[in-house]
């Protein structure tokens, strides 16, 4: 049977992507400011959201990777997404990725969404380690990860070439036992 999962927080619902999300998804990923340190250039193809939603929904159902649409309960609109990808079941690890619509930055929404994603990853999925690969200039993202307890583990030089521009990466890691200790102390 197709796998489905919904996560809830005080202000948000995280659910699998679905048809109807196209306009909100494009509003997130067509914005050059949101895509400044992303692994791809801003979206310009109007067909891209529908293709991405179909691919993400199928991958979610098959447990290949999990991209959650982040929906603001107050409006019912998607304001971002967060993803567990590059799943290595044997090593019990995955990478996290995320993006938030520019006009919702600074409201604590991504931290709130990622807390639920971490609980899902370390709880239901029983993962041991999560990683994030971030451009060192991406201060909003590094602060968000550090707030959640991720540790900076190393610099990977010139790891991405996006739109002809070469980017370094900082690798962040969070172990399940570190997350559990932080969660207990909060
Ligand atoms: C990375 C990104 C999601 C961070 O967004 P954000 O809104 O700064 O992240 P948070 O949810 O952690 O919010 C924290 C901010 O909200 C503020 N805030 C307001 N209300 C809050 C609340 N209730 N709880 C927590 N923080 C709150 C915090 O003070 C902080 O503001 P500051 O950065 O000015 O100190 C966003 O910058 C983004 O989408 N960037 C583009 C995509 C990207 O680069 N993704 C990473 C690569 S995979």
TrEMBL record:
SUPFAM superfamilies in the cross-refs: Acyl-CoA N-acyltransferases (Nat)
Keywords per UniProt: Transferase
Lineage: superkingdom: Bacteria
Descriptive protein name: GNAT family N-acetyltransferase
Segments passing through the bilayer: none
Domain N-acetyltransferase: from-to ranges: 12-177
GO MF term set: protein N-terminal-serine acetyltransferase activity; protein-N-terminal-alanine acetyltransferase activity
PANTHER family noted in UniProt: RIBOSOMAL-PROTEIN-SERINE ACETYLTRANSFERASE (PTHR43441)
């Amino acid at each position: 049977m197709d796998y489905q999962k919904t996560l809830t927080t005080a202000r948000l619902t995280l659910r699998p992507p679905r048809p109807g999300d196209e306009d909100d998804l494009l509003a997130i990923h067509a914005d050059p400011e949101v895509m400044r340190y992303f692994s791809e250039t801003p979206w310009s193809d109007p067909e891209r959201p529908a293709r991405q939603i179909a691919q993400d929904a199928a991958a979610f159902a098959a447990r290949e990777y999990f991209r959650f649409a982040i929906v603001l309960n107050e409006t019912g609109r998607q304001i971002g997404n967060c993803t567990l990808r590059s799943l290595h079941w044997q090593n019990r690890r995955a990478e996290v990725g995320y993006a938030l619509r520019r006009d919702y930055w600074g409201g604590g929404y991504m931290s709130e969404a990622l807390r639920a994603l971490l609980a899902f990853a370390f709880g239901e999925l029983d993962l041991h380690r999560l990683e994030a690969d971030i451009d060192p200039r991406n201060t909003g993202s590094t602060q968000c990860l550090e707030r959640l307890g991720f540790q900076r583990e190393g610099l990977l030089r010139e790891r991405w070439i996006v739109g002809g521009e070469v980017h370094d990466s900082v690798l962040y890691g969070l172990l399940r036992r570190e997350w559990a200790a932080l969660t207990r102390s909060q």
